[in-house]
Amino acid sequence: MEKNGLNGMGLWTLLEGFLLLANALAILNEERFLAPKGWGFSEVSTSGGAKTLKGQIIGLIYAAQYLRVPLIVLDAITILVMLISG
């Protein structure tokens, strides 16, 4: 039986997906991965391209990297809830 028309995908699953995406963005390394592909923060800040889509995505990546400690706390809470709830 379907719940809320989402085929079993509830709010908790959606939040877990966003948490996984935030974790994936937080671990990207600028020197090894982003800068060689032209996605470094210095390119956006020097050229004034913060209004472009590429600049917005780079800003999102850097925001996720800046919030690593809260992400670790959210990961721990998620793991505990999953252990308790089964």
From TrEMBL:
Source organism (scientific name): Rhynchospora pubera
Q: Which family does it belong to?
A: Belongs to the YOS1 family.
Task: Identify the GO cellular component terms for this protein.
Answer: COPII-coated ER to Golgi transport vesicle; endoplasmic reticulum membrane; Golgi membrane
One GO term under biological process is: protein transport
Q: Which domain of life is it from?
A: Eukaryota
Q: Which InterPro entries match?
A: Yos1 (IPR013880)
Segments passing through the bilayer: 66-84
Q: Which Pfam families match?
A: Yos1
Per UniProt, which keywords does this protein have? Membrane, Protein transport, Signal, Transmembrane, Transmembrane helix, Transport
Signal sequence, start to end: 1-24
- Name of this protein: Immediate early response 3-interacting protein 1
Entry's localization field: Membrane
